[in-house]
C-alpha cells in the first residue's frame, strides 16, 4: 500500500509494488482517453506526478515506450490494469505507479484549489510530509531535458534551428515529414551560435516548468526576433511572448489532455487540440501591446492559445499542433510557419 499526500493535507490511498522512497512532484491531471504512452515519454511532464482521470489506463500495453526515456516521477491511476502481466511490465520502468486511487476526486480537488505539490509515501507520516511539502520548491527542469549539444536531422533546402526546451519527438517528426533540415540546439545556446548556423527560421519547442525562470533564454530570443521567422509552441510560446513584452501567470490547474477546444480567430473555426501546460500568457498584456494580436483562444475559459506579430514573421501557439497524443487538426500551423521561411 502507498499514499498520495497532497500539500493541503488530503490523502489518497492506493496500491503500489516494489521499494518506494518518498516521491515528490507537482500533481497534475490529464483527461486523455488514449495516449498514455505519449504522456510518459513527453519531456514536458518532467518531475511531475501525473493523475489520469480516464479509468482504464494500460489497456493496449506499453510496447511503444520500450527503450525510451520516462519523464514523470509517478503516475496515479484508478484501474487495476487489464491484467497483472501488464502491471508487472510497466512496473519495471523507472517510474512509480500507484493504482486503485479515486483519480477523479483528485482532479476535482485540483480544479477547486489548483495544482500543488504532492508526495507518494508508504508510511503514515502524513503531518510530517505535509509540512515538508509546504516548505519545499521544485526547480525549473528544462536543464534536465534539453539536449547536451546541437545535432542535425535530415539535411534539405530549408533549415530550421530548433531550441530544445524538452522537445517532443512528434514535433520533430512533423517537421521532418515536411522535408526541413533541422539543427537542434540546447536550450541555453546563445543568439550568435544559433544565427551562425544560417537558419531560414527558428522553432522554440515545448518543455516543462515556469518560463519566467528562464531569463537568459528570454534575452536570447529578444536578439533573434526580427532576424528570421520564429514559431513558438507551448513553453516556446510563453518564452516568445515574454520576449515580446507580454506577461505570463500560473494557471489554477492548467490544461492537460487531448480534447481542448481552441478557436482560430482568423479562420473563425474551432479545433480540438492536445495540451499540456500550467502557465498562460496574460490576455491583458497582449491587448495592451500594439505590435501583437491574439490568433487563438480557448473556447472553455477564454485564455490565450496563440498570438502573432502584426509586422514581423512571428507566430506562437500554446497547444500542440502535432497531437501526440490527440487530434492532428492543427497540423496546418506547421505549414503556415514554413510559408514564412
Automatic annotation (TrEMBL):
<keyword id="KW-0067">ATP-binding</keyword>
<feature type="binding site">
    <location>
        <position position="44"/>
    </location>
    <ligand>
        <name>L-glutamine</name>
    </ligand>
</feature>
<feature type="active site">
    <location>
        <position position="322"/>
    </location>
</feature>
<comment type="subunit">
    <text>Composed of two chains; the small (or glutamine) chain promotes the hydrolysis of glutamine to ammonia, which is used by the large (or ammonia) chain to synthesize carbamoyl phosphate. Tetramer of heterodimers (alpha,beta)4.</text>
</comment>
<dbReference type="Pfam" id="PF00988">
    <property type="entry name" value="CPSase_sm_chain"/>
</dbReference>
<keyword id="KW-0055">Arginine biosynthesis</keyword>
<feature type="binding site">
    <location>
        <position position="279"/>
    </location>
    <ligand>
        <name>L-glutamine</name>
    </ligand>
</feature>
<dbReference type="InterPro" id="IPR036480">
    <property type="entry name" value="CarbP_synth_ssu_N_sf"/>
</dbReference>
<feature type="binding site">
    <location>
        <position position="207"/>
    </location>
    <ligand>
        <name>L-glutamine</name>
    </ligand>
</feature>
<comment type="pathway">
    <text>Pyrimidine metabolism; UMP biosynthesis via de novo pathway; (S)-dihydroorotate from bicarbonate: step 1/3.</text>
</comment>
<keyword id="KW-0315">Glutamine amidotransferase</keyword>
<feature type="binding site">
    <location>
        <position position="276"/>
    </location>
    <ligand>
        <name>L-glutamine</name>
    </ligand>
</feature>
<dbReference type="InterPro" id="IPR006274">
    <property type="entry name" value="CarbamoylP_synth_ssu"/>
</dbReference>
<dbReference type="InterPro" id="IPR029062">
    <property type="entry name" value="Class_I_gatase-like"/>
</dbReference>
<feature type="binding site">
    <location>
        <position position="209"/>
    </location>
    <ligand>
        <name>L-glutamine</name>
    </ligand>
</feature>
<comment type="similarity">
    <text>Belongs to the CarA family.</text>
</comment>
<dbReference type="GO" id="GO:0006526">
    <property type="term" value="P:L-arginine biosynthetic process"/>
</dbReference>
<dbReference type="InterPro" id="IPR035686">
    <property type="entry name" value="CPSase_GATase1"/>
</dbReference>
<feature type="region of interest" description="CPSase">
    <location>
        <begin position="1"/>
        <end position="155"/>
    </location>
</feature>
<keyword id="KW-0028">Amino-acid biosynthesis</keyword>
<keyword id="KW-0665">Pyrimidine biosynthesis</keyword>
<dbReference type="Pfam" id="PF00117">
    <property type="entry name" value="GATase"/>
</dbReference>
<dbReference type="GO" id="GO:0004088">
    <property type="term" value="F:carbamoyl-phosphate synthase (glutamine-hydrolyzing) activity"/>
</dbReference>
<feature type="active site">
    <location>
        <position position="320"/>
    </location>
</feature>
<dbReference type="GO" id="GO:0006207">
    <property type="term" value="P:'de novo' pyrimidine nucleobase biosynthetic process"/>
</dbReference>
<feature type="domain" description="Carbamoyl-phosphate synthase small subunit N-terminal">
    <location>
        <begin position="1"/>
        <end position="121"/>
    </location>
</feature>
<dbReference type="GO" id="GO:0044205">
    <property type="term" value="P:'de novo' UMP biosynthetic process"/>
</dbReference>
<feature type="binding site">
    <location>
        <position position="278"/>
    </location>
    <ligand>
        <name>L-glutamine</name>
    </ligand>
</feature>
<comment type="function">
    <text>Small subunit of the glutamine-dependent carbamoyl phosphate synthetase (CPSase). CPSase catalyzes the formation of carbamoyl phosphate from the ammonia moiety of glutamine, carbonate, and phosphate donated by ATP, constituting the first step of 2 biosynthetic pathways, one leading to arginine and/or urea and the other to pyrimidine nucleotides. The small subunit (glutamine amidotransferase) binds and cleaves glutamine to supply the large subunit with the substrate ammonia.</text>
</comment>
<feature type="active site" description="Nucleophile">
    <location>
        <position position="234"/>
    </location>
</feature>
<feature type="binding site">
    <location>
        <position position="238"/>
    </location>
    <ligand>
        <name>L-glutamine</name>
    </ligand>
</feature>
<dbReference type="GO" id="GO:0006541">
    <property type="term" value="P:glutamine metabolic process"/>
</dbReference>
<keyword id="KW-0436">Ligase</keyword>
<feature type="binding site">
    <location>
        <position position="235"/>
    </location>
    <ligand>
        <name>L-glutamine</name>
    </ligand>
</feature>
<comment type="pathway">
    <text>Amino-acid biosynthesis; L-arginine biosynthesis; carbamoyl phosphate from bicarbonate: step 1/1.</text>
</comment>
<dbReference type="InterPro" id="IPR050472">
    <property type="entry name" value="Anth_synth/Amidotransfase"/>
</dbReference>
<dbReference type="InterPro" id="IPR002474">
    <property type="entry name" value="CarbamoylP_synth_ssu_N"/>
</dbReference>
<dbReference type="InterPro" id="IPR017926">
    <property type="entry name" value="GATASE"/>
</dbReference>
<protein>
    <recommendedName>
        <fullName>Carbamoyl phosphate synthase small chain</fullName>
        <ecNumber>6.3.5.5</ecNumber>
    </recommendedName>
</protein>
<keyword id="KW-0547">Nucleotide-binding</keyword>
<dbReference type="GO" id="GO:0005524">
    <property type="term" value="F:ATP binding"/>
</dbReference>
